[in-house]
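Example for tutorial group B:
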């Protein structure tokens, strides 16, 4: 199981690194667009859509990374009050019965959201450039699927921790709250 979780977390980290590269690309693209628009009065026809896509892609690809590195926003008052074991139980129930079904449903919907335009050659219709929309939607689908995989890894980690056999994968768990 440890190898399974490590593999998923490696995918999540790679996705996060790709998101970071996309943010750097976004800075370059937006700087270019501002310079050519205001210094040369020659805006691009692709600037709006590409920067929107890059920003959306970076956001959705970073979600699994945030979950894998425990850098997401979380409300820990229940964990703090009830203790570590109850916290693992809350994580297990929350991930397995609420978040995972939601993500499976979202993944299913994202497949349709991607595949329809891929099959039909749908275009954005938002600019004179008017590119096909499926590449952006493919990135969204990939991000949601990676997020779903990371939730499965979190379920496995919570189940093992609840059973008293935590999977120590690198970063140590935070110390228990002071009582």
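The residue assignment follows.
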């Amino acid at each position: 199981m440890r190898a399974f979780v490590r593999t998923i977390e490696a995918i999540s980290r790679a996705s996060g690194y790709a998101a970071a590269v996309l943010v750097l690309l976004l800075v370059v693209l937006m700087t270019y667009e501002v310079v050519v628009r205001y210094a040369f009065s020659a805006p691009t026809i692709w600037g709006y859509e590409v920067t929107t896509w890059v920003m959306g892609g970076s956001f959705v690809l970073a979600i699994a990374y945030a979950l894998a590195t425990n850098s997401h926003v979380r409300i820990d008052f229940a964990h703090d009050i009830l203790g570590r074991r109850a916290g693992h139980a809350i994580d297990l129930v929350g991930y397995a019965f609420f978040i995972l079904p939601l993500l499976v449903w979202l993944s299913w919907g994202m497949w349709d959201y991607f595949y329809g335009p891929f099959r039909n050659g749908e275009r954005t219709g938002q600019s004179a450039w008017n590119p096909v929309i499926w590449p952006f939607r493919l990135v969204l689908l990939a991000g949601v699927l990676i997020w779903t995989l990371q939730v499965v890894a979190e379920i496995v980690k919570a189940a093992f921790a609840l059973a008293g056999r935590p999977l120590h994968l690198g970063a140590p768990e935070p110390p228990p709250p002071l009582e």
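Residues 45 and 71 are 37 Å apart (CA to CA). Compare this with the pattern of hydrophobic and polar residues in the output above.
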